[in-house]
């Protein structure tokens, strides 16, 4: 054993007398299941570098308040997560006393365990022949025999039916909120570069330097909590595996009974939304289509409150997507605006360009040829009515409007196809959100894409009808209260599912 340090144990045994046979199998099994070589260097009597990196990540994940220490509550949560048992107060104090006796700086002045003490504790486990304890901790946090996060741990299997999408569940959103608050040390509602660097110490950085052009940020271009949730919402829709991977990195509670699947939800198929005449999704994708120069990218960037002056000065390149929260009848939804690149006006759209919840067709009020392109796109791809469409007359502040080189005017075209009239939009207006509310509402109620959905007068009219209808029901019910048998007959034959859900949404608003 002195000559070959990779030999972990030595047992004298006898098959004839059965001496130490059970011990031999025990140590053989232990050498396979809990090998010492990947986690401990016998010559240096210290943990390997890979083991220290893994345990450091585990320490940071368990440090829920991000103060650099593990207090009693955090230690108890760590114990329950790894060993399914709480740590008794007496045992906790004994552990701290052992650390104090052997090293300085292992326990803080406020009686909490430091990273140095946490690493020493595991070194002590290995030295005393309890490598299985350290391996139990490592495997509970997803590490394999090579001290890498295993593929199964990072990427759980999930089946997403065609026509469905993936969103963060309530648990997933709450986890990312807690993660944001954990690293927002100064509690200013945004993550500075220093705070972001602290967050990404335990994993690779997930976004580049252009994050401020994708999600909401503050005046210093630091990502806000809303922007943070927007980013992970966008990632969950477009790259679910990346969300799974970073949930694992950040320490989402994964065990034998639960994995990252509880952090996401798979929406029902879109054809069912059309059948039910209402979408149950919380995230809607809008594709912005138009010729070059009509202001598509500016429309996308205004979603995240970028001023027109800022957009004009931006020379770093404009991303294809932006995302922000939009209110639809009192409910918070996420709207993703994607700028569809147009090379040649005669080029067809790609199949991926047609996979969205609502379409924004943009033309330029001062470009007489811009409407012809979006009209042709509508007739070729969206005339079947399966995807809601809104025409947008951009740069409407430039007066007078130039006549479009097309057979009919944009308003007449929309009337002929039972569409709302073109929405007049200007990117120089500060704080205007009407266009995004319209798009999100059209995505939420895909069967109401005609004029009545977007006209404010018709909304009031429809709301009045809904209120009158409910009042009439109430009057009838009150008159029938004295006739219980008749009332039971009425309610058994009446179903609220027969009503248009949009009618009641106006009342709720």
Automatic annotation (TrEMBL):
It is found in: Mitochondrion outer membrane. Belongs to the mitochondrial Rho GTPase family. Gene3D superfamilies: EF-hand, P-loop containing nucleotide triphosphate hydrolases. It is a single-pass type IV membrane protein. Residues 281-445 form the Miro domain. It comes from the Eukaryota. Keywords: Calcium, GTP-binding, Hydrolase, Membrane, Metal-binding, Mitochondrion, Mitochondrion outer membrane, Nucleotide-binding, Repeat, Transmembrane, Transmembrane helix. PANTHER family: EF-HAND CALCIUM-BINDING DOMAIN-CONTAINING PROTEIN 7. GO terms for molecular function: calcium ion binding; GTP binding; GTPase activity. One of its GO terms (cellular component) is mitochondrial outer membrane. This is Mitochondrial Rho GTPase. It holds the Pfam family EF_assoc_2.
């Amino acid at each position: 054993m002195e000559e070959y340090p990779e030999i972990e144990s030595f047992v004298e045994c006898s098959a004839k007398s059965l001496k130490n046979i059970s011990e031999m199998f025990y140590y053989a099994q232990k050498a396979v299941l809990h090998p010492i070589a990947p986690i401990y260097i016998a010559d240096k009597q210290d943990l390997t570098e890979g083991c220290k990196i893994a345990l450091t990540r585990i320490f940071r994940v368990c440090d829920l308040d991000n103060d650099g220490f593990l207090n009693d509550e955090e230690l108890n949560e760590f114990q329950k997560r790894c060993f399914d048992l709480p740590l008794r107060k007496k045992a906790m104090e004994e552990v701290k006393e052992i650390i104090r006796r052997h090293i300085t700086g292992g326990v803080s002045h406020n009686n909490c365990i430091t990273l140095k003490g946490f690493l020493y504790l595991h070194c002590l486990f290995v030295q005393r022949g309890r490598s299985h304890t350290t391996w139990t901790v490592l495997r509970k946090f997803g590490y394999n025999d090579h001290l890498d996060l295993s593929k199964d741990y990072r990427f759980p299997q999930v089946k997403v039916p065609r026509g469905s999408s993936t969103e963060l569940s309530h648990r997933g959103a709450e986890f990312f909120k807690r993660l944001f608050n954990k690293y927002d040390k100064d509690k200013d509602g945004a993550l500075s570069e220093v705070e972001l660097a602290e967050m990404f110490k335990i994993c690779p950085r997930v976004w580049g330097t252009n994050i401020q052009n994708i999600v909401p940020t503050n005046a210093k271009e630091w990502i806000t909590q809303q922007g943070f949730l927007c980013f992970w919402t966008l990632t969950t829709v477009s790259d679910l595996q990346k969300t799974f991977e970073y949930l694992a990195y950040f320490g989402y509670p994964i065990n034998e009974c639960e994995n990252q699947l509880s952090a996401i939800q798979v929406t029902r198929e879109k054809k069912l939304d059309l059948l039910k005449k209402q979408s149950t999704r919380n995230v809607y994708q809008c594709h912005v289509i138009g010729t070059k120069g009509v202001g598509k990218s500016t429309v996308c960037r205004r979603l995240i409150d970028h001023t027109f002056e800022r957009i004009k000065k931006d020379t770093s390149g404009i991303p294809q997507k932006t995302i922000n929260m939009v209110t639809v009848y009192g409910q918070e939804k996420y709207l993703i605006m994607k700028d569809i690149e147009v090379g040649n006006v005669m080029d067809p759209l790609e199949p991926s360009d047609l996979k969205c919840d609502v379409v924004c067709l943009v033309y330029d009020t001062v470009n007489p040829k811009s409407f012809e392109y979006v009209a042709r796109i509508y007739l070729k791809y969206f005339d079947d009515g399966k995807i809601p469409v809104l025409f947008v007359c951009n740069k409407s502040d430039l007066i007078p409007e130039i006549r479009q080189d097309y057979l009919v005017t944009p308003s007449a075209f929309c009337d002929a196809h039972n569409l709302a009239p073109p929405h007049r939009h200007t990117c120089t207006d500060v704080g205007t959100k009407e266009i995004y509310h319209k798009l999100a509402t059209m995505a939420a109620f895909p069967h109401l894409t005609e004029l009545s959905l977007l006209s404010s007068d018709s909304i009031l009219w429809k709301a009045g009808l809904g209120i009158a209808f409910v009042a009439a029901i109430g009057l009838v019910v009150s008159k029938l209260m004295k006739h219980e048998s008749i009332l039971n007959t009425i309610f058994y034959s009446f179903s609220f599912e027969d009503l248009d859900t949009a009618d009641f949404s106006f009342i709720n608003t």
